[in-house]
Amino acid sequence: xxxxxxxxxCSFLLTSLLYAQTLSGTVIDFKTKQPxxxxxxxxxxxxxGTTTDDLGRFSIDYSDAIQSQLIVSYxxxxxxxxxxxxxxTELSIALKESLNQLDExxxxxxxxxxxxxxxxxxxxxxxxxxxxxxxCKILNEDDLILRFNKADNVLSVSARKPVLVKNKSLQxxxxxxxxxxxxxxRYVDAKQDQFGIHSVLYTGTSFYKDLNSGKKxxxxxxxxxxxxxxxxFMRSLYHMNLKDAGFDIFHKKFKVNExxxxxxxxxxxxxxxxxxxxxxxxxxxxxxxxxxxTPLVSQFYIDxxxxxxxxxxxxxxxxxxxxxxxxxxxxxxxxxxx
Length: 338
Fold this sequence. Notes:
By secondary structure, this protein is mainly beta.
C-alpha cells in the first residue's frame, strides 16, 4: 500500500514555529475573477479546516504541529495544493474549472465485473478489515466510478466528489478526495467471485470532521486505534521511548536493541530529527501485533507529532501495513488543536 493521505514536503524540516499562526486568503474563479463561496480549505488529513464566505475570504489557524499541505477544493474545479504557506500570511488563489469530465458511456460499459463486485472489492480495500473499519459506511457510493481492466487485472476507482465515509466507532466523518486508487490482482475468477490481490495503491487528500460530542466510548476507540499504529510508532521513535510505548524490535527472529538499528540524531536549527535505518526489522506491539518495516531509503526524517518523510521510503506490512481509512486518525489526534 502506498498513500499520499499522510503526504508532507521536506520543507517542514526547515521550520519550527512555537506559536499559533493565522493564514488568510481569497479564492476566485480563474476566468471571471469573481469570488467563490463555500470553497473547502483544510490541512490535509486533519480536523482543521474552513470554507470561504460570500466574498471568497477564508481564515484558518495552525501551529507548528500542523505539517500537512493546505488543500483548496471546490466541486467542478481543479484542486490546489499549497505547501509553502508557512512563509505567507495572505494567499490569493484562482481556481480553474476542471476539464476532466467523466464519460458515462465508458463508465457503464461491461468490463467483466459487476458493479456489485467492484463495490465490494473497493469497500474492503479502502475501508479496511478491522473492527473499526466494519463500522464505516460510504455515504455517496453513487459518485464512485469503478473500472476493471481485464488485460492488466486492475480495478481503478475515481469519484465525482470526495468520498464521504462515516466512521461510527471513531466518530469521524472523512471526506477523502481520491487522486488514484488501484487494486492489482494476481488472479480473477468473476464467476466464482474469487480474487487474489497482489497490491493496493491509493493516493488522495482527506479532511476529518469530528462527530464526537464527548462520548467516552468514541474516545476509548480512538485510543485503541492509535496504540500500535504507524503514527504511534513514529512519535515514539522521535522521543526514543519505543520500549516504554510497547514496541519491541526483532531482527531475524531475535529481539534486539532497537537503537542498534535506528540511529536518531538531532538536526541543527530544527525540531525535526534524522533517522538512519538500513535493515528490515519486525515490530511487535505489546507482544501480539506484528508488523514488518522495510527501508527503501537509508535515511528519513521525523518530527515529534509523528510526521515523517519521505513516506514512500518506508514500507510497512503486517498489522501496520493493513491499516486503511477505517483505522486512521487525523495527524493532529491527541494534540491541543485536535
